[in-house]
């Protein structure tokens, strides 16, 4: 079990109750997946091999959240595993066979079976020298965290917990089986995984894990941007992303993977209601997630919204100005921030559509404040909707989340102003097709009316008509033709006289 030096605020009785509940969870979950797991275990036993449910599958069973993806480990070598899966699995894949892993699918359940590992690391990169082991003990000690280093041998269901994983799970504590310095030196990605598990599980990293992460933060540069991106995305899509971000920042890991976020700690929010822009951004992240969940309680986490909430103010450090009256301004920080977000997400190898959407939200997040300061025209409302395009629902959430102030009266006024804006959008949308604000004449009609071939003139005419459409709303065909002809005459294009 875990060392008694570990500290947890829960009482001994509470921890024992959690352990008993975890054991009950595991029994229920294992009974649910038993048909597939038991069949597989019996095939291995008949061939003289041991089979263990392991890692995240055991952890999730104990937490009562086991899915239909099961992880197993065995002393059987990959080719022997392939033979045992043949004739049993509906599908088999061996893309990970060089690392000792084969996957299979049967009756709605996916299984991955990995031969015991006893890898060695050169501590320069992160790819190990793959070596197969012969014992479950050797396999478990090389795993990342104690809560992922438990196993259940099947078909007998004997529980293997050599590193206090059950106690750590009950205490909601994240610790390593071996010394964290050795674990992270072998694979620095585990430091990011620690922050990710803090977000996903709501656990707290042990003091020694936090110390090792802090001391070894610079080692994360050994990890490719693609792998960093995957862990960061999983962290942000977790149940408690703020806690994961705080761990990255507090240990210095964020300085290497997302430096724009800790840089915000230097700035004081112009509203003076937050300790700094960093804390304000974490609050916006929390509130955006609350709005996301309220809108769709069963929906998937919105990575784009969460990235935009976290990064929306990263342009403030570079735009801070101290005003003569003692105030602070951040003029055009949304423009600077959009460029910075684009650059950082590109460096992390995010897909182009994610980069564009996050950067657009950062760029647009301040636009609403012109509305709250004075009444917009219908034209301004149309432009807001047009510029947001399909991002409008996310922009609504981001702007509302960003209306943070300790002045309750001011906060209520901001929310009322945004309520009013949404009502106006709905009203204008009912009168016009706001989702598809397009000129009242298409390109083919423009070419026919002006007698021109495809080229720049058509695009300029189309853009002119779209601007009129945004300003004035829908026009009749006659009005649109008259406006086109008027524009063409200004350009020196011969058109029929009106």
TrEMBL record:
Cofactor or coenzyme needed: Mg(2+)
Top-tier EC class: transferase
Top-level taxon of the source organism: Bacteria
UniProt key word Aminoacyl-tRNA synthetase: no
GO biological process, one term: tRNA processing
Coiled coil: 404-438
Statement: the UniProt record of this protein carries the keyword Transit peptide: no
Keyword annotations: Coiled coil, Magnesium, Metal-binding, Nucleotide-binding, Nucleotidyltransferase, Transferase, tRNA processing
InterPro entries reported in the protein's UniProt record: Bact_CCA-adding_enz_type3_sf, HD/PDEase_dom, HD_domain, HDIG_dom, NT_sf, PolA_pol_head_dom, PolyA_RNA-bd, tRNA_adenylyltransferase
GO MF: CCA tRNA nucleotidyltransferase activity; metal ion binding; nucleotide binding; tRNA binding
Pfam family, one: PolyA_pol_RNAbd
EC number, as in UniProt: 2.7.7.72
HD domain ranges (all copies): 277-387
PANTHER family membership: CCA TRNA NUCLEOTIDYLTRANSFERASE 1, MITOCHONDRIAL (PTHR46173)
Protein name per the record: CCA tRNA nucleotidyltransferase
Taxon lineage: Bacteria, Bacillati, Actinomycetota, Actinomycetes, Pseudonocardiales
């Amino acid at each position: 079990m875990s060392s008694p030096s570990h500290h947890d605020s829960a009482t001994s009785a509470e921890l024992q109750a959690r352990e008993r509940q975890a054991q009950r969870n595991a029994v229920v979950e294992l009974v649910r997946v038993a048909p597939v797991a038991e069949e597989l275990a019996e095939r291995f036993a008949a061939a003289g091999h041991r089979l263990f449910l392991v890692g995240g599958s055991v952890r999730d069973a104990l937490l009562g959240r086991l899915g239909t993806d099961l992880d197993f480990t065995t002393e059987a070598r990959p080719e022997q595993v392939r033979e045992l899966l043949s004739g049993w699995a509906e599908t088999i894949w061996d893309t990970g066979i060089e690392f000792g892993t084969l996957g299979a699918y049967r009756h709605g359940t996916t299984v991955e079976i990995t031969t015991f590992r006893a890898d060695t690391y050169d501590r320069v990169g992160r790819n190990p020298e793959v070596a197969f082991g012969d014992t479950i003990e050797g396999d478990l000690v090389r795993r990342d965290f104690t809560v992922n280093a438990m196993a259940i041998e099947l078909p007998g269901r004997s529980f293997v917990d050599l590193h206090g994983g059950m106690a750590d799970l009950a205490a909601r504590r994240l610790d390593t089986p071996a010394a964290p310095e050795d674990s992270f030196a072998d694979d620095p990605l585990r430091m990011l995984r620690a922050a990710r598990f803090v977000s996903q599980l709501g656990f707290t990293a042990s003091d020694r894990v936090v110390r090792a992460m802090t001391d070894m933060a610079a080692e994360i540069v050994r990890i490719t941007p693609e792998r960093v991106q995957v862990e960061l995305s999983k962290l942000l899509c977790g149940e408690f992303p703020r806690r994961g971000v705080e761990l990255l920042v507090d240990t210095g890991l964020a300085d290497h993977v997302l430096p724009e976020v800790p840089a915000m700690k230097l700035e004081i929010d112009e509203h003076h209601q937050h300790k700094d822009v960093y804390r304000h951004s974490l609050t916006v992240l929390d509130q955006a997630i609350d709005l996301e969940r309220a809108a769709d309680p069963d929906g998937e986490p919105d990575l784009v919204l969460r990235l935009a909430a976290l990064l929306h103010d990263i342009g403030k450090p570079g735009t801070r100005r101290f005003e003569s009256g003692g105030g602070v301004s951040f003029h055009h920080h949304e423009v600077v921030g959009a460029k910075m977000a684009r650059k950082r997400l590109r460096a992390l190898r995010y897909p182009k559509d994610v980069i564009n959407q996050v950067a657009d939200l950062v760029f647009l997040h301040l636009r609403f404040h012109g509305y709250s300061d004075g009444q917009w025209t219908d034209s301004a409302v149309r432009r807001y909707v047009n510029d947001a395009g399909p991002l409008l629902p996310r922009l609504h959430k981001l702007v509302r989340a960003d209306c943070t102030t300790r002045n309750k009266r001011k906060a209520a006024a901001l929310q009322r102003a945004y309520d009013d804006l949404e009502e106006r959008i709905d009203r204008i949308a009912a009168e016009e097709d706001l989702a598809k604000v397009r000129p009242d004449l298409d390109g083919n009609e423009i070419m026919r009316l002006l007698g021109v071939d495809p080229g720049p003139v058509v695009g300029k005419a189309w853009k002119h008509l779209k601007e009129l459409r945004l300003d004035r709303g829908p026009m009749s065909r006659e009005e649109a033709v008259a406006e086109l002809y008027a524009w063409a005459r200004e350009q020196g294009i011969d058109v029929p006289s009106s």
